Records
---
Amino acid sequence: MAEFADKKLVCKDCNAEFVFSVREQEYHQRMGLRNEPRRCLICRQVARMRNDDKALTRGPRRSGPPGPGGPRPGFSGPRETFTVTCAGCGRPADVPFKPTGARPVYCRDCFRSRR
Ligand SMILES: [Zn+2]
Ligand SMILES: [Zn+2]
């Protein structure tokens, strides 16, 4: 078994010297890694963070297809409304349909509270 000794390596990213410690060398050997690290600890972290970013943008999209927002096809201009008197509170209310008189018409608030 080879004797380990702290090794000084030069980071390929920032050209700073860093120590490839005995402990890390042992770890590398245990993991079956043959290559010495080519980056210092800081640059390794930066690289990992960059990879995480990439994984995030590459991963499944969290937002679905563009939702409603733009004008819907076949819909032009403001919706036609009819002003009626609410059968619940007596206030004028705008409804998106023509009241027939057959059924009581409620404003939005009363309509919601009746359901
Ligand atoms: Zn570095
Ligand atoms: Zn009402």
Note: The chain has two domains: 1-59, 80-115.
---
Amino acid sequence: MKKVKIIGAGLAGSEAAWQCSRRGVPVELYEMRPVRSTPAHQTSDFAELVCSNSLKSESENTAPWLLKEEMRRAGSLLIEIAKGCAVPAGHALAVDRALFAAKVTEVITRDPLITIRREEVSHIDEAELTVIATGPLTSDALANEIARLSVSTHEAGPVPPHLYFYDSISPIVEADSIDMSKVYLAARYDKGTADYINCPMSKEEYDVFYDALTVAESVEEKDWEKLNYFESCLPIEEIARRGRDTLRFGPMKPVGLRDPRNGKQPYAVVQLRQENLRADSYNLVGFQNHLKFGEQARVLRLIPGLANARFLRFGQIHRNTYINSPRLLDSTLRMKDHPAVMFAGQICGVEGYVESIATGMLAGIHTARLVAGEIALAPPRVTALGSLMNYVTNADPRKFQPANITFDLLPPLEKKVRDRQLRRKLQCELALVGLERWLDEAKQTAQPAMSA
Ligand SMILES: Cc1cc2nc3c(=O)[nH]c(=O)nc-3n(C[C@H](O)[C@H](O)[C@H](O)COP(=O)(O)OP(=O)(O)OC[C@H]3O[C@@H](n4cnc5c(N)ncnc54)[C@H](O)[C@@H]3O)c2cc1C
């Protein structure tokens, strides 16, 4: 059987490779690390989580839960591994990042149907069945090649074939450098277990911190104004620039975080989330930033409890590349002009770890069907998977931006339901029924493949 090429062994590529392999389809998996690294990855492991360790909410009937639940039912490898590497994080699924990547690497490496090639790919043969899953930090050479492949569709309209915005990552501190006498453990609104370390600030402490932050020096300050940020992942200094209290309504919001030592809600709170199972490191939740490292140390040590913090990683900022999928891809992630070439992961215009894994899973399932001479079946719109695909391939190409899964992407119920909780519960029920039907159909259909 001819091998499928999968490029990039990140979240989407690893999942896609395994989905092919479990259906008996051999894969050549190309990963450029460690030969060439990206600005955000730190290891040569597959499926490295480059920033936060959270795979979002596990509260039933939330949109992130629904997406993960559909993936569990469809047999996602990475979601299964995540469960085994979970660290306490209230109602969210957070993982030990090192363990998670090590386990994925181990499973993929020992898979007899997956051949691993540690090299940078810079050329795509559009006649070969290929999944491009090279992520937001796709190497420049391959980005140019993708532009070449996109050109005919690009010329059909005024919309650029690939786009980018800027994204940033949060700092991590060593646990034993946190002064525990200045902080307290709590979950917001006491939901789930009290797994977060909360650093409370009085108004005076907040003012000192705010003033230091807004004058701190950034990296590449001259380019500052030109940077095009992703709105849901803004650096703290950019949020602060928008008003004195903006941080208190964003990453430093104190609501629902009463200090058990005095029963009062602080003026502002910085939350720290456990990074790994050993609980020897914590990340500053939502504290991605673009300050010079020395400036970060100075400003972040003004946070109560972090006066002597040792930093394992400072915040950073990176370019984030994605293609104009509504223009370029069909509903099964194949290029309209080159149907043997598929895209998966963040590069196809989803945002987030789970969404990236989800599209990798779909690309793997679709590819395996094509190899078996069957047609690729898009998941139904009623599901979270289908709604995400619908957004990626049908959004307005003139203002296309990567998206997380939210209820806004799911179709509304036929009948109006006023109660929000009930409405979401019904949407989730319908989605899961739709998913089961799709899984059954995918097992049964055996029609001739299209051109690939
Ligand atoms: C700085 C940053 C921080 C982020 N933080 C978060 C976060 O906190 N939470 C969240 O949910 N999402 C976050 N994201 C978004 C996204 O979820 C992650 O980037 C996720 O890893 C995307 O998965 P992926 O499989 O698409 O890409 P990746 O996991 O990045 O995998 C792509 C792989 O392709 C390889 N590669 C690239 N070019 C080539 C080539 N030419 N040849 C061979 N191999 C190549 C890379 O080395 C990499 O291993 C962040 C993104 C960035 C850039």
Note: Residues 168-319 form a domain with the Elongation Factor Tu (Ef-tu); domain 3 fold (CATH 2.40.30.260).
